[in-house]
Amino acid sequence: SEEEVGRGDDRVRPDLTVVLRRAPKLQSAAAQLRDELDATIKWEPYMLRPNTPLEGYPKPGTPEQRVGHAMRVAGANAGITFTGLTDRTPNTELFHACMLALEESPRRQTAFQEKAFEAYFTLGVFPDEAGLLACAQKVDVDERSGDGDDDEHAEGESSSSSSVEAALAALFTDADRIAALRRRAKQEALEIRMSGVSSVPFFFFEWRPVFSGARDVQDFVGALRAFARAPPVESCSSSNQPAAPPAAAAAS
Length: 252
Description:
By secondary structure, the chain is an alpha+beta fold. It has 10 helices and 6 strands; from the N terminus they run H-E-H-E-E-H-H-E-H-H-H-H-H-E-E-H. The strands form 2 sheets. The protein has a 4-stranded mixed β-sheet. The protein has a two-stranded antiparallel sheet with strand order 3-4.
C-alpha cells in the first residue's frame, strides 16, 4: 500500500515478499541499506506437493542417499547443511498455518521460518505439532538471550508479551482456528501458483515480481536500490499482480 511504501519519508518502505524458503541474504541486504530504506519481509505459503497426506510419507534410502553431492555443495555455498536426516516427506499445511498465525509479527514469523527450515533440512525434525513447538521454543530462547534480530521492535510492529511457543500451543488447541488457517494457507498457495510462480524462493517488492532462485546479497542490494529510485506507482491492479489474498500484503 502507498502508506506502507512511505514515499513522503526520506526512506522508502517496500514490503519484501518471499515465497517460502529462507531470507538471510535479503535480510542482510536490507540491513546494509537501513539508512536508505525501511524494509519489512513478509511470507506467503507455497506448496510443492499439495496432495501429500497430512501424516506425510516415508522417504526411501539412507540420509546420505537422500542428499546428492551437488545438493550438499549448493547448500554449503548458501550456508545450509542438508543432511537427509528427516525420514518422511511432510504435508506443510500445519507449518503454513503457524506462519499465518504469526503474521502480525514479521520478525517472529521470519525467525520461526528459519528455525523450521533448519529443523527439517539439518536436524531431522519432522514438522508436526511437537516439532513446530520445538522450533517456536528456540525462537523464544533467542529472543530472551538477545540473539534475535536487532530490529525486533521495528516500526509498525508491536511487541507481544506472549511467547511464540505459547501462541502456537494455543493455536493447536483451537480446532476451528487451525482448520481455518489450513484452508487459508491452501487457498493462498494455490493463488500464488496460479499467478505463475512455479518454484521458490520467489521475491516480490510491493507485489512487483523481482526474481526467483538463490541470489547473492549484492543482487538484493542492487534490486532494492533500483526499487528505491523508481518513481512512485499506483497500486497494482488485480489484473497485473499475483492474486494476493486480501489479508496478505506480500509474498517472497
